[in-house]
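User: what does the whole thing look like in 3D?
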Amino acid sequence: MSTDAVRRLRATWQSDHKLQQAIDVAFDNIGFDDRYLNECTAQAGYADRKRKYIKDSVWGMVELEWATIRLLDCPVVQRLRGIKQLGFSYLTYPSAEHSRFIHSLGMASVISRFLSSIEKRSGEHDESVIDTLRFVGSNEIKPVLVEEIVHAAILHDVGHMPFSHASEKVLEGLEEDFMCGTLTVADIRDQVGSILQKPLTLSEILSILIVLSTRFEKFYGNYVYPAGKACGSIA
Amino acid sequence: MKPYTALSGKAVGVLDRQRFAKGFVAELVSRDLVAVRPKSPTDRRGFASVVRLLDKKIHELQEHDADKAQVRQLIRIVNELRPSNTGGFEGFEAALRSLQLTFSSCPNPFYEEIAFDVPKPYARATVDDLPEFGRRLVDAAADAFIQEVRPEGR
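Assistant: Here's the predicted 3D structure for the full assembly of 389 residues, as structure tokens:
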């Protein structure tokens, strides 16, 4: 998936005012409204920049830096606390109760571990494989910053609907009947399929739609990570 | 209610990944190519040429304001057949392996070769079961593949 393609998709969606309005209405319903954004922006300059540790039952202590905490606290991510990771499986397997929120947190932990492993090996040579093979550091993975990769892990499932893939299948099965702004689910899938050239599921498409929305971009750029360039580099 | 085809049981006019894969295999069989090796560089070039052909077809259809449903079907098929981020044609391979029991044998992913154990008459009937544009498409796709894997008509 090239940055250019994502940029084209962003331009297409952001120029569709009715689509952006529909997304804003959905954001308003979960409390991610203009008032919330204004309050966040007002705090941006003097908010606490301490790290936090969250205990995860699978990954142990997950260390989070301040920008990630800001992201985790926003209603778009907090909504995932109410989304079951495994659809209706909990009815058969009572312990399959965990949410998309804890899954995203685990994902952030795994990605952080990957990145720190990459960092540790950067500069090393493995002559046993190929003479010229050299491990690169995460600072050489351009144009994205390490923090932004962790944020992407946190955000990767924000488009999930109740009961995750179970409800997704329903909407995909009736794709001409469900609308997102002025577009049907079928239209939006085609748009993404033809621009990004990937067979994405509806929840993946909605996650991209949320992250590329004007309101979310404003929130991320003004409050979560003003020093970053994820949304900026797409722009 | 839409009419359904005898062989696939799917609505007439619908071309999805499975029907495309079946038609593609049937066309390969009719050209005496009865197995592929998805990991071999030659066959990967063949898959790449099929993906290029489908992209070109989509582009042509979009330029001529063709039927939206037809374009949609093609976009979805080609996106599933595209190489992954690692460069492998896992989607294409999965499409062929998923035809096991009827069209392909050796579904075990550790077997390098996917064999197409299909009698020619059945292959012909499968192609006939496709909508007109699907027939033309699988024919062109098989030609593109063969041209890469057997450039001298071997």
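In plain terms: Strands of chain B lie at 35-36, 104-105, 114-116. The two ends of chain B are 47 Å apart (CA to CA).
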